[in-house]
């Protein structure tokens, strides 16, 4: 039971990082993306490829994953500069589908449908994080750093500019804001830190394949943000905790067949979203929106 709880806590930390980075562009820049799993996958594949081919150094994996994801984020930043609202959601959906196809077909790098197996534990200074409890500590520290860094950016002049663009892009332009640059930087930051979660995911599980980086994953990350409270500091973390623990809780229902858990989970997600939109449209932590 202890090992199971450690596993859940580690996955909560990873999902919380993903939710925080998606909330950064959704809640503060007003960019609604269905392609967040792409950068999660890029980080995971870069880390796994480096670990299997060259070195298990966590710092090198993180650096490479953040650079690659940041560069690829230009493919998302470009439509973000040209279209808004529903049009961008459609563009990000196309980007997600394209990336999932690449993950499936680029077998020499991603392993195709079969994925990459046997990824060694990451190490820092020669110390490998093979123990699950140690890795949980690493994931928790990483999450704390992401929270601190993201909060600092949100409360900086860049963060205020992001909120101005979110509220009225035309007004931001009139006040002399460089909207194109600010949007690009926000997407770059979101993608780069999202890739950090991918690195942790690959190093923790030791196996990855495209199933973890599909449109379903992107939808789940968006649900975490919306359920917790978009544009809030703690909302994405609350959403990540709830939607990560929910599937685990369902497995303990004696009357629910294991084969039906996925379907019931999707129904609960949808029902919860409908209830939130009716009774608490700002999310569970929406009352604290002014603090974000």
UniProtKB/TrEMBL annotation:
<keyword id="KW-1133">Transmembrane helix</keyword>
<dbReference type="InterPro" id="IPR001851">
    <property type="entry name" value="ABC_transp_permease"/>
</dbReference>
<dbReference type="GO" id="GO:0015658">
    <property type="term" value="F:branched-chain amino acid transmembrane transporter activity"/>
</dbReference>
<feature type="transmembrane region" description="Helical">
    <location>
        <begin position="58"/>
        <end position="80"/>
    </location>
</feature>
<dbReference type="InterPro" id="IPR043428">
    <property type="entry name" value="LivM-like"/>
</dbReference>
<feature type="transmembrane region" description="Helical">
    <location>
        <begin position="32"/>
        <end position="52"/>
    </location>
</feature>
<keyword id="KW-1003">Cell membrane</keyword>
<feature type="transmembrane region" description="Helical">
    <location>
        <begin position="179"/>
        <end position="201"/>
    </location>
</feature>
<dbReference type="GO" id="GO:0005886">
    <property type="term" value="C:plasma membrane"/>
</dbReference>
<feature type="transmembrane region" description="Helical">
    <location>
        <begin position="87"/>
        <end position="106"/>
    </location>
</feature>
<feature type="transmembrane region" description="Helical">
    <location>
        <begin position="135"/>
        <end position="158"/>
    </location>
</feature>
<keyword id="KW-0472">Membrane</keyword>
<feature type="transmembrane region" description="Helical">
    <location>
        <begin position="6"/>
        <end position="25"/>
    </location>
</feature>
<protein>
    <submittedName>
        <fullName>ABC transporter permease</fullName>
    </submittedName>
</protein>
<dbReference type="Pfam" id="PF02653">
    <property type="entry name" value="BPD_transp_2"/>
</dbReference>
<keyword id="KW-0812">Transmembrane</keyword>
């Amino acid at each position: 039971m202890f090992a199971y709880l450690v596993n859940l806590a580690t996955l909560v930390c990873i999902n919380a990082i993903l939710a925080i980075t998606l909330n950064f562009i959704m809640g503060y820049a007003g960019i609604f993306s269905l392609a967040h799993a792409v950068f999660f996958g890029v980080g995971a594949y870069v880390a796994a490829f480096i670990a299997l081919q060259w070195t298990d150094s966590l710092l090198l994996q993180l650096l490479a994953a953040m650079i690659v994801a940041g560069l690829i984020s230009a493919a998302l930043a470009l439509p973000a500069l040209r279209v808004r609202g529903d049009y961008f959601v459609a563009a990000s959906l196309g980007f997600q589908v394209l990336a999932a196809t690449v993950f499936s077909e680029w077998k020499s790098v991603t392993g195709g449908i079969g994925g990459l197996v046997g990824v060694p534990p990451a190490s820092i200074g020669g110390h490998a994080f093979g123990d699950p409890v140690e890795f949980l500590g690493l994931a928790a520290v990483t999450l704390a750093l992401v929270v601190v860094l993201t909060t600092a950016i949100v409360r900086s002049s860049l963060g205020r500019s992001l909120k101005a663009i979110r509220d009225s892009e035309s007004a931001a332009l009139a006040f002399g804001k460089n909207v194109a640059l600010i949007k690009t930087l926000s997407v770059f930051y979101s993608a780069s830190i999202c890739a950090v979660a991918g690195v942790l995911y690959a190093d923790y599980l030791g196996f990855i394949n495209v199933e973890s980086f599909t449109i379903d994953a992107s939808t789940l990350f968006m649900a975490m943000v919306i359920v917790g409270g978009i544009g809030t500091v703690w909302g994405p973390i609350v959403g990540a905790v709830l939607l990560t623990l929910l599937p685990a809780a369902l497995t303990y229902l004696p009357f629910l067949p294991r084969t039906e858990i996925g379907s019931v989970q999707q129904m609960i997600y949808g029902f919860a979203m409908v209830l939130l939109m009716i009774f608490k449209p700002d999310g569970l932590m929406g009352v604290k929106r002014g603090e974000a």
